[in-house]
Amino acid sequence: MLDIRHLRTLAALRDGGSLVEAARRMHLTQSALSHQLKDLEERLNSPLFERKSKPLRFTRAGLELLQLADKVLPLISQTERNLQKLASGHSGRLHMAIECHSCFDWLMPAINRFRDHWPEVEIDFSTSFHFEPIPALIRGDIDLVVTSDPAPHADIHYQPLFRYQSVLALANQHRLIAEAFVKPEDLREETLIHYPVDRRRLDIFEYFLSPMGIEPQSTRQTELTLMMIQLVASGRGVACLPSWALQPYLDSKLVTARPLGVDGVWPTLYAAVRKDQQDTHYMRDFLQQALDSCFSNLPGILPVAL
């Protein structure tokens, strides 16, 4: 009657505290998650939690299943890893480049957990400020690229991670905070601060300004997100960042944010790997840990509909 996905879903509901958060952690839509829970309750002929309770309260049946989940799920995860190591060997290489320059905070926990389980896999990583990462991936110089700009290639597999909203960071006194959203023409008189990469790899150009043929008055580059925020806060320009990367600075009221356009700009972040490596056990394990890490730690991201 039970299967592993039921236990994982119920644990996510407890840990997330709501259907919305549990769906985010499970990389599902809320309707799909609700369907899973309803299916389980019908199989058991018993409700598992009280629908309208705040905070969320589980029934006796739900608590029994959660006790089982806490015992079984860690054992299954560890056993799967042990079997993967037996099947594929312990050694390997995972050199990665990060085009998403705000990804270190959520990627580092995944890297640290991966090291614990795959100690003999050689790990290295860098930002892609000063080289083109996808050609380097094709050549075999690196093994994984985190990017929001997939370039189709016969030898490359792009694993979707999540969707995120790109927003414009503004000084708290900026004229545009009076607007509900930013229009492309609003940036004609602005200095746009961005990372030192080709503009084709920047969301604000690729999805917002370039399609309308609009240029900012000037641009300024910096490699550090914190420096970018300080420049914005002091009125030296505006900057486009993922909403989750900007959230700590919004919480501390250093800057203000507005969406790009009435519907917002929602790119998808991918992990790019060579097809001849995508099914290696340590690569699959790392991608799963990266997914778990980002959905556990990043506010405002959405699963990619498959």
Report on the structure:
This protein has 3 domains: 4-85, Winged helix-like DNA-binding domain superfamily/Winged helix DNA-binding domain (Arc Repressor Mutant, subunit A), CATH 1.10.10.10; 91-161 and 268-297, D-Maltodextrin-Binding Protein, domain 2 (3-Layer(aba) Sandwich); 166-259, D-Maltodextrin-Binding Protein, domain 2 (3-Layer(aba) Sandwich). Helices cover 42% and strands 18% of the residues. The chain has 10 helices and 10 strands. A 5-stranded mixed β-sheet has the order 2-1-3-10-4, sandwiched between helices. It has a 5-stranded mixed β-sheet with strand order 7-6-8-5-9, with helices on one face. Helix 2 packs across helix 3 (30-44). It is globular, with a radius of gyration of 22 Å. The model has no long low-confidence stretch (mean pLDDT 89).
